[in-house]
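INSTRUCTION: Work out how this chain folds

Fields: amino acid sequence; protein backbone structure tokens

Chain under study, with its fold:
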Amino acid sequence: MSPAAAAGEEFLAWLAHERRASPLTVAAYGRDIAGFLGFLTIHLGGDPDLAALAGLRLADFRAWLAYEAGEGAGAATRARHLSAIRSFFRFLARRHNLANAQLRLLDTPRARLPLPRALVPGHARAVAEEIGEDSASAAIQARDIALFTLLYGCGLRISEALALAVREAPLPGREAMLRVVGKGEKERAVPVLPVVREAVAAWMRHHPSPAPEAPLFTGARGARLNPGVAQRTVRHFRRLHGLPEHATPHALRHSFATHLLAAGADLRAIQDLLGHASLSTTQRYTSVDEAGLLNVWRRTHPRG
């Protein structure tokens, strides 16, 4: 057994007996370390000893991660493997006085965020305008139309819409902008379309308890509407009408942003409307509708 492999066995024993890690965790760390040392054997041309581990360069660690990626390991898998190797090297520093500062300079692989999946305009309008058409209750139908029209018309998260109180309801004749409290208690103002105000007003005629502090959207028993009920409603609707599986309440928020961008809206404005802290989050929408962006470019570029 090579010195590095022996140190790995010592590390695993420490995990099991002193840190009391589970057998599954110890086994996973063992596979990760064995894979790393196996790569180094090929990469360095021989079994590594402790001096070789101490002398590894940043390029060596990057070569290992690149090899893992070439073998099909995703970002999350590579990040987990790197975490195991960092733990191993911390152990080596404590038990064998082996320090390698290069490992601290290595960035952890990050998985790409999935692209937002928007609905086509016709499907988004159908969810917003026809969601409660098969409901046995006129009140439930009015509530669901108001809720989903609000999500699509203002780009709200479902949690933001369900947090609204009656006093905040965007009704005809009220303030032009709706004040919304989003993630991190960050407040933003979004404009409200007339169709949204009309839908909310129709629901308010059925509201069971329209006191100012009461929830704007309520369930069958008068309590604040549970988001699971809203999600189940959309799931039922999409199955009846043959909509895609990504037709969810949150897809209406994605549709709001994607359709504005396709029509030429400014990315910074969309960022403010969605309440994104970083423009990079909003920029994900630019990959969703490249055809729309090309059309805007052709219309607006001086040399287009």
User: Anything to note?
Assistant: The chain has a mean pLDDT of 89. The longest helix spans residues 23-44. The chain has two domains: 3-105, 121-252. The beta strands are 177-181, 187-191.
